[in-house]
């Protein structure tokens, strides 16, 4: 149970149309996901008194709330990249537990792929050259280069191989093959990953997330609303968040991410351990993110991530710890700040709505505990949420 006297549940989740969506605006994807999440919960938008959004509009989340016809009395516009939505879920759960809000809607939508295709924007190579970044930009320190450098350090320090990193992409694609909503479902092999065009050594193209359009929404509410919902509640059991560095020169150890702190806090507050978890949804803009986050969350020891991801351990079918059960950002969808999609998939798994990709607990029954862990920037921030069902 979270701090305060009120339990908090996720009562509605949904995705908008995802993948290749050329005919919609980001606002429309926000609205579509929000409507679907409310319908999933079986609640009217009139109950929503809290709203969280980031990434769209000059005055986010004011513009998006106005577009959706909401007038919230509690808002959050925290923006810390991919971990944004796990941070927002933690803040929303605290607010509901304390009685500052009753029902909080988290919404995201992006036409990142369509915008690049139409020439409305270019690919995001960096976050700019202001502040601390001015000291890195002159050296070509692109976003992907930062992740590639961190991966190389792990390989040097612990003997992790590029083939082990490729295993993450292969197993994500195998999970995506079971997800009819995944953007890429055809199987790939380690050789396919290794032989692809180089993007930033050691990452070839399949080591990197895809670019898609899409949106997602999650509705959290106080425990007294559960009886009015059409879906089974998924409880927020514990959360943790942590920020680490702004510039690479300030990062003490490229092989340790902020998830080492956020995960420890989330598990402690939930009263569980990594050994209790049935599946994990982990931010995977690059294969190294999955591997090192598994270490930092405590699913294996530091430096053992390479061996841990081998042998199909991350697979929905037959894996000891299914990871990114929808295919993740590497194969399912990645429209930008993908953290909200992790929460949607975790809730669906705990409800038993995974279909062909449904996870089973070690005893063969439905899963009882799952974790969603988002990463922002170049491992600058992390937030972890432990979820469970009755």
Question: Would you kindly provide a written description of the structure presented here, covering whatever features stand out?
Answer:
The protein has a 9-stranded mixed β-sheet. It has a two-stranded antiparallel ribbon with strand order 5-6. The chain is of the alpha/beta class. Helix 6 (162-176) packs across helix 9 (287-296). It has 12 helices and 11 strands. The longest helix has 16 residues, at 26-41.
Task: Summarize, please.
This protein has 390 residues and is of the alpha/beta class. The chain has helices spanning 26-41, 62-67, 84-97, 112-118, 143-158, 162-176, 190-194, 259-270, 287-296, 305-308, 328-331, 339-351; strands spanning 8-15, 50-52, 74-76, 103-110, 198-200, 203-204, 214-222, 234-243, 279-282, 369-376, 381-389. The protein has a nine-stranded mixed beta sheet with strand order 3-2-4-7-1-8-11-10-9.
Outline the secondary-structure elements.
Blueprint: E1 8-15, H1 26-41, E2 50-52, H2 62-67, E3 74-76, H3 84-97, E4 103-110, H4 112-118, H5 143-158, H6 162-176, H7 190-194, E5 198-200, E6 203-204, E7 214-222, E8 234-243, H8 259-270, E9 279-282, H9 287-296, H10 305-308, H11 328-331, H12 339-351, E10 369-376, E11 381-389
Helix pairs in contact: 6-9
């Amino acid at each position: 149970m979270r701090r305060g006297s009120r339990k908090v549940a996720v009562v509605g989740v949904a995705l908008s149309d995802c993948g290749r969506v050329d005919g919609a605006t980001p606002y429309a994807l926000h609205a579509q996901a929000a409507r679907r999440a409310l319908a999933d919960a079986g609640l009217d938008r009139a109950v929503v008194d809290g709203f969280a959004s980031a990434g769209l509009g000059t005055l986010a989340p004011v513009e998006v709330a106005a577009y959706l016809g909401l007038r919230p009395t509690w808002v959050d516009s925290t923006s810390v990249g991919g971990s944004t939505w796990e941070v927002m879920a933690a803040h929303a759960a605290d607010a509901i537990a304390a009685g500052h809000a009753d029902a909080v809607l988290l919404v995201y939508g992006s036409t990142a792929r369509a915008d690049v295709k139409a020439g409305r924007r270019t690919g995001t190579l960096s976050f700019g050259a202001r502040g601390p970044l001015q000291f890195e930009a002159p050296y070509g320190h692109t976003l992907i280069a930062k992740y590639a450098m961190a991966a190389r350090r792990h390989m040097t320090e612990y003997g992790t191989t590029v083939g082990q990193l490729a295993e993450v992409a292969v197993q994500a694609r195998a999970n995506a093959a079971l997800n009819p909503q995944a953007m890429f479902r055809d199987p790939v092999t380690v050789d396919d990953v290794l032989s692809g065009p180089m993007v930033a050594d050691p990452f070839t193209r399949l080591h990197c997330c895809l670019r898609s359009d899409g949106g997602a929404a999650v509705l959290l509410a106080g425990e007294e609303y559960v009886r009015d919902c059409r879906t089974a509640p998924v409880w927020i059991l514990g959360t943790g968040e942590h920020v680490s560095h702004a510039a690479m020169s300030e990062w003490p150890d490229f092989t340790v991410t902020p998830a080492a702190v956020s995960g420890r806090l989330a598990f402690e507050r939930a009263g569980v351990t990594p050994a209790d978890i049935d599946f994990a949804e982990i931010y995977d803009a690059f294969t190294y993110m999955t591997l090192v986050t598994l270490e930092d969350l405590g699913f294996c020891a530091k430096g053992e991530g390479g061996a841990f991801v081998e042998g199909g351990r991350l697979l929905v079918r037959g894996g000891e710890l299914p990871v990114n059960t929808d295919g993740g950002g590497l194969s399912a969808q990645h429209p930008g700040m993908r953290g909200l999609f992790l929460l949607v998939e975790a809730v669906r798994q705990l409800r038993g709505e995974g279909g062909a990709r449904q996870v089973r607990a070690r005893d063969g029954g439905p899963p009882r505990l799952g974790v969603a862990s988002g990463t922002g920037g170049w491992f600058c921030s992390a937030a972890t949420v432990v979820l469970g069902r009755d």
